[in-house]
């Protein structure tokens, strides 16, 4: 099966609106079960595969996502190109709620997650070049697609990835800011590294849900507000990816 684009949906994105002639694929992997069925279908005349990272009813927390099974499943279905949609908190002043960002770097603060397909007994140790964690051509294609849709989008930024599921303390965000992080999320890693191990083209479309703790005008972060902003930002995903598909 050819898949023109695979999309991993994050918080607030549990199904891909407008996907037609859908079929559900339950994929078994050597690493266990993915977060749910992969839904394949057509969108703007192209083949798209969609997987909800947290499950379709949001039951899988960030630290328990089976990132290896998810990436493996998309690859096994024939995907070569993956756009990961991630809900994030903004640290930089211009990355307030509802901002769209295509980050170009990552700092990984997660722990205790399986970070490699080779992290199994007896497998040969493998090191990948990860200087540029995202595929630049795919990043640029997302930025161009959003702009062609008349949407403001920020090209580049450092995506700090925390363990979750709790949000961060103000001191943690202040430290991340000093480290150079512009955004904070809980699911960007090891997803990006695993995609690289499989040789996939991979980029992230980050949707800012809130200012991170102590950043911008954040005093207290309300989960209701996060989901309200996410719903608004998520509405931009199908038009951006539709335009992206037109250019592929
Ligand atoms: N921190 C971490 N992950 C997030 C946040 C945040 O403030 N908002 C949305 N995802």
TrEMBL record:
> What protein name applies here?
Probable S-methyl-5'-thioinosine phosphorylase
Q: Which additional comment does the entry carry?
A: Although this enzyme belongs to the family of MTA phosphorylases based on sequence homology, it has been shown that conserved amino acid substitutions in the substrate binding pocket convert the substrate specificity of this enzyme from 6-aminopurines to 6-oxopurines.
> What EC number(s) would the UniProt record show?
2.4.2.44
Which GO molecular-function terms appear in the entry? glycosyltransferase activity
Give start and end of each Nucleoside phosphorylase domain: 5-236
What does the annotation say about its assembly with partners?
Homotrimer.
Pfam families documented for this protein: PNP_UDP_1
Matches recorded under CDD domains: MTAP_SsMTAPII_like_MTIP
Q: What does this protein do?
A: Catalyzes the reversible phosphorylation of S-methyl-5'-thioinosine (MTI) to hypoxanthine and 5-methylthioribose-1-phosphate. Involved in the breakdown of S-methyl-5'-thioadenosine (MTA), a major by-product of polyamine biosynthesis. Catabolism of (MTA) occurs via deamination to MTI and phosphorolysis to hypoxanthine.
Q: Does the keyword S-adenosyl-L-methionine apply?
A: no
Species this protein is from: Luteibacter flocculans
Please give the superkingdom of this protein's source: Bacteria
Glycosyltransferase in keyword set: yes
């Amino acid at each position: 099966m050819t898949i023109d684009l695979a999309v991993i949906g994050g918080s607030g994105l549990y199904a891909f609106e407008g996907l037609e002639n859908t079929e559900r694929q339950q994929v078994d992997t050597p690493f266990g079960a993915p977060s749910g069925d992969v839904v394949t279908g057509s969108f703007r005349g192209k083949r798209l595969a969609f997987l909800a990272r947290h499950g379709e009813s949001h039951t899988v927390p960030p630290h328990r996502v089976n990132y290896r099974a998810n990436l493996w499943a998309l690859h096994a279905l024939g995907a070569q190109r993956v756009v990961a949609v991630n809900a994030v908190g903004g640290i930089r002043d211009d990355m307030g709620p509802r901002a769209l960002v295509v980050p170009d770097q990552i700092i990984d603060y997660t722990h205790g997650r399986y970070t490699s397909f080779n992290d199994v007994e007896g497998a040969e140790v493998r090191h990948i070049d990860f200087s540029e964690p995202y595929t630049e051509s795919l990043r640029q294609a997302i930025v161009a697609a959003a702009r062609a849709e008349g949407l403001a989008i920020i090209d580049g930024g450092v995506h700090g990835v925390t363990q979750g599921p709790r949000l961060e303390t103000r001191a943690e965000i202040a430290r991340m800011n000093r480290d150079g992080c512009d955004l904070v999320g809980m699911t960007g890693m090891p997803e990006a590294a695993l995609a690289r191990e499989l040789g996939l083209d991979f980029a992230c479309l980050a949707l800012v849900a809130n200012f991170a703790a102590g950043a911008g005008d954040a005093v207290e972060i309300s989960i209701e507000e996060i989901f309200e902003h996410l719903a608004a930002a998520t509405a931009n995903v199908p038009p951006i990816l539709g335009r992206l598909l037109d250019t592929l």
